[in-house]
Amino acid sequence: MIQRAQRFTRARSRFGLICLVVVFSTTGCGGGSPEMEGEPEAAAAEMESAGPRVFFVEPADGATVQSPVTFMFGAENFMIEPVGDGDIHPGAGHHHFGVDTDCLPAGTVIPDGDPSWIHFGTGSTEIDMQLEPGSHRFCLQVGDGEHRTLADLSAVITVTVE
User: I need a labelling partner for 46 at 20 to 30 A (CA). Which of 40, 75, 114, 150 fits?
Assistant: First the structure.
């Protein structure tokens, strides 16, 4: 009987030890530290507070390139959309690309038919262009459904074509 009690006590001790190991090993697999839990929300809040912007993905400002040149545009915290029926959607618009011209003041209707301006009314974000050798200045500017420029949504680069 004593041997049986000793075996039972040893088995119970082993079982208890196994339970403790399982409990302590799984508590380390929790949801992470409190600092990590707030990081995605903080990153999202930082992006929202940064405000919308448009930019050239390529080429880089000051680049020396060969013709034809591929221009790619990007946008953050702003939706690039096709013109559609001409309605204005807050936080959305489409690209306009000025070649060897300055950007237009906010609220200005981007001229249609002016060879200095290319409209991207389909919502596209890139173009290949044949350019003469020399230095060229480009303005990327966003327009709403009525092709009016939006405040603070423009970027300018200069590239040299060899």
Answer: 150
